[in-house]
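Hey, I'm writing a tutorial for new members on how sequence and structure tokens pair up, and I'd like a real worked example in the thread rather than a made-up one. If someone can provide the structure for the chain below, I'll link this post from the tutorial.
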Amino acid sequence: GDGGGWSVAADWHATSGMTNSLWHLVETTAAVAAATREPNLRERFHGDEYFIPIIDQLLGSRTGSTIKARRHVYKRAQEYMIEDGRLWKVGDKQSRRVPRVECIPSREGFNTALKAHMENGHWDVDITKLWLRDRYFWPHID
């Protein structure tokens, strides 16, 4: 049947040698550690409407004013990580040629692209875009 005719003995833990089943939880998650270690990450992306909610989500802050908005940010943030004071977009094998790329604020995108073009032998647009996409991500990189 359905298991309704039997139960576990009340003193089952006494025979198995278990003493206490208590867990001591200490909040030392990577997000909390990153929040104390990476204060200038938020400053670097200040005013960037795309990345700030993702950074806040990764650092453990509450984001979004509605449940739907919070769920959306949570889902988007799963593609990112914070390491060494930088925000990274993490790719999977199906969608990216490289395992991760550094995220930069949108306002830095043009200067980064111009610098890549100048320092890499004045490649044409398509080659420069490929080079940039293998190293960086920002919204509307195309």
